[in-house]
Design the sequence.
């Protein structure tokens, strides 16, 4: 899966955990988070329950690196299918995007 972007969600990142959404063709479709303090920490991913695409973890690892400069998930990644996690984080991202566009 190519052309995936990772965007952090304001208020969802702190000194310990960074959370955000993955975008494909500009549309948010998945959730991700990782521990900021561990060098080789897991990249935790959540997809909608009906997500049927084959998951290529390397695309998600590279998207996180491009946005944050960190390589997360190289050694271990965790994947789940959970609409609640995905939808709530996408909603927070869309609100953040809307407020950013209003300021511009």
Sequence:
């Amino acid at each position: 899966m190519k052309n995936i972007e990772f965007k952090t969600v304001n208020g969802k990142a702190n000194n310990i955990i960074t959370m955000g959404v993955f975008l494909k063709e500009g549309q948010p479709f998945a959730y991700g988070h990782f521990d900021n303090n561990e060098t080789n920490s897991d990249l935790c991913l959540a997809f909608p329950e009906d997500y049927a695409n084959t998951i290529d973890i390397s695309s998600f690892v590279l998207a996180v690196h491009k946005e944050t400069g960190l390589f997360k998930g190289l050694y271990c990644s965790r994947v789940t299918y959970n609409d609640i996690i995905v939808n709530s984080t996408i909603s927070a991202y869309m609100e953040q995007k809307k407020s950013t566009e209003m300021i511009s």
